[in-house]
Amino acid sequence: MSIDAFFDAYTLQFLLLASLFAMLGGFVKGAVGFALPLIAVSGISSIASPQEAVAAIIIPTFVSNIYQASRQGLGPALATAKQLWKFNLVLVLVIAVVTQLVPRMPNTLMFIILGTLITLAALIQLLGLKLPPPKTRTGKAGLEIGAGLVAGGMGGLGGFWGPPTVMYLIAIEVEKHAFIRAQGLIYMVGSVMLVGGHLTSGVLNFNTIPLSFFMLLPVAIGMGLGVYVHDKLDQKVFKKLVLIVLCAVGLNLLRRGLF
What we know:
Number of domains: 1
Structural class: mainly alpha
Mean pLDDT: 89
Shape: globular
Helix content: over 70%
Largest sheet: none
Number of helices: 13
Strand content: under 5%
Low-confidence stretches: none
Order of helices and strands: HHHHHHHHHHHHH
Radius of gyration: 18 Å
Distance between the termini: 36 Å
């Protein structure tokens, strides 16, 4: 797509607003380590179709997750991959299937689904809900598969699967450093399948791929600013405020789908 064709497809006003939402998502991710797709998708959905909002943030999510996963080296990542192979396998299979449904859904249904997922994701973290630790090997395998199903469903539809991933890792009592590494690995694996799934589904296409690459810059700027102010913020208060705002945004998307 040429530059002229790109600006014919997207108005300057749209690009500025979408960049603002992407930058805000990047800022929060840099400051407290989560919520890039949650914020960006919910914000861009207010000025575009839900499918276009999901497409816009796929490449920035992919790049940021690859970066996060690579920070601790290949060896530790492979060791973690062995431990979590069931979760990752279910995650990618479900993302592969669910992404194919997205372009077939009417906008109203997508607003309802995105609104519900965003509100639930924010509430889970806001209320600090936790899964009980599995007591048997069978219980652990069941939890791994169940959490992978939920995470894959959320990822395929909305491009985010952090909340069920975090709940699962806490439930199996992963230690701190392995926890960060496992998060990075799961986000990277899911991101690869998300890109592949939406290239196949058509959500990532001739028009939306340039838009998604365009969003890389505002996300990077936002993340840089977020990292800069990380130590200056009261993490708990800021995180709580972000989650409250996400609840409100999710409920508004739900309203758009229902009324």
